[in-house]
Every structure is written in C-alpha cells, then in structure tokens.
Amino acid sequence: MDLLHDLPVNAAIELAAVFVAALSGGLAAVRKNFDVFGVLVLGWATGLGGGILRDVLIGATPPVGIAHWPLVVAALAAGLVIFFLHPRLERMRRAVIVLDAAALALFVLLGTTKGLEYDVGLLAAVVVGVLTGIGGGIVRDLLVGEVPLVLADRQLYAVPALIGAGATAALWHADALNVVTQALVVVGILGFRLLSLRLGWVVPGADSRWSGRWGSRGQGRMGA
Description:
Elements: H1 3-6, H2 8-31, H3 36-58, H4 64-67, H5 69-91, H6 93-117, H7 122-143, H8 149-152, H9 158-173, H10 179-199, H11 208-223
Helix pairs in contact: 2-3, 2-5, 2-6, 2-7, 3-5, 3-7, 6-7, 6-9, 6-10, 7-9, 9-10
C-alpha cells in the first residue's frame, strides 16, 4: 500500500512540507547571524533532517535528504527565500506557525506510512513517524547550539505527532488507511497543534519546589 507516494499531488505536498520546515531553519540561522551558506545548510538540515533520520532507521538508503533532488532544491530554495526576505517573514509570524504545524502533520503521516511500507512493525512505524515530524527541529536547534525546543518548551508539539502517528498505524492495521483517512489524520494533527497554541495547553513540567525537597531529602539519606 503506497498511497502517499503514488499520487502527484502528494509529492507536491511533501515538497511543500519540506519547504515550510526549511523556512524555520533559515529563520533560526538568520537570528544567529549565519552567512548565506549557514542559512542554506540549516534550512536543508531542518527541512530534511527528520526524513534522513527516518530513512536511516528503516534502512531506506540512500536517504531522501541526499538522493531526491526536488526535495533538496525545495529546502535550499527556502533558505534563499529566508536570506533575502526574512524581515517580511518575521512579520508573518502567525502564518509561519500555521505552516509549521501543517508541515508537522504532513511529515508525521509521511514518516509513519513509509515505515509501515518497509514493514518495520507498528511500534517502530509510530516511532519513525514522530521522529520524521520533530527530527528536523531537533537537528536545527542542535546546530545552533540550543536545547531542542521539543524538550525545553512545554508546548504540545511531540504529543500531536505521537497521536497522529498512532492513528495512522492503527488505520493501516485495520486496512482503513486511504486518501480520506490520511486527510483526517493530517487535519487532526494540525487542529490539535493549533488549538493547543490557542488555548495555551502545555505539557506538565517538573515542580521545582518538589524537586528541591526530594533532592535535599535524598542528599540527607546518602550522607547518613
């Protein structure tokens, strides 16, 4: 079942997802005052990092990030757009956030589906689906010397990806994954992500006060 890669429209959607994700990488590079080469590299790494990680894990070599030239061109084009037009795009922050959420949804669906096509098993497919969605952002943050936002920021980003990947795998297992249900998965991830931003939903964080009390008690026991 190769529903997502057989249709030309889906190839175009994948290109769009790479382009949008690469925009965020380019913006991060500009904010760090990278030169044009750095902007292009970070755009490429962000747009295709999750796909490369996915392909390495499931044994799909060479990875799309270096083998599929239209995707590479899309990522580099996004880097150029950011380099020359970043002041305007900075003012379009809300639009970029929406597009980033759409890219997350598409990458999760693409990654999970490809893992299932390579018969890696349901659990592994869910894992690679999530990594496809968030991997580019992790690579971006590491390259600019920051803690990945998916770990440091309590916004719901990985959670929608996990739910979407799980839904995709469940639909596949039930032989119900088709164009309609794929669209529903994408809309669900996108809607969940945007709704969480709108309503301020966050992942529970560690209570620093409790951590401090636990730590002091733990030290006391160790010293006794």
